[in-house]
Design goal:
Blueprint: E1 4-7, E2 10-13, E3 18-24, E4 33-39, E5 46-52, E6 57-59, E7 67-72, E8 77-82, E9 91-98, E10 113-114, E11 118-123
Parallel strand pairs: 2-11
Antiparallel strand pairs: 1-3, 3-8, 4-5, 4-9, 5-6, 7-8, 9-10, 9-11
């Protein structure tokens, strides 16, 4: 059973930074890509950042220039550096893995392994 464990969430003021980490129980070469999703109560999960085994990264327009996703293959960790945080970044953040080559379309159903989530709260 593959496990993903997120950490690094918390509460910060607007303009602050947080770094989320997602530790995987299997090496990165076992899957094609990983992404961070954000969910607000009552809404669908939406992808904010994506990275695949070729180094391709994709960001939601709302976080471009502020968030950076990276992969440490030696440690089996995918991180999300979040800078210049805004109140609208608030939500539960989940990391997820996909073995599908179509995962770059960021369709939630293409990601088959999920972490438990970590809460990010940004106050104004």
């Amino acid at each position: 059973q593959v496990e993903l464990v997120e950490s690094g969430g918390g509460s910060v003021q607007s303009g602050g930074s947080l770094r989320l980490s997602c530790a995987a129980s299997r090496p990165t070469y076992h899957y094609h890509s990983e992404a961070w999703f954000r969910q607000i109560p009552g809404k669908e999960r939406e992808a904010v950042a994506y990275i695949d085994s070729n180094g391709l990264t994709i960001y939601d327009d709302s976080v471009k220039g502020r968030f950076a996703i990276s992969r440490d293959n030696a440690q089996n960790i995918v991180s999300l550096q979040m800078n210049s945080l805004k109140p609208e970044d608030t939500g539960m953040y989940y990391c997820a893995q996909s073995q599908s080559p179509w995962a770059k379309t960021l369709v939630v159903q293409l990601f088959d392994v999920w972490g438990q989530g970590t809460q990010v709260t940004v106050s104004s």
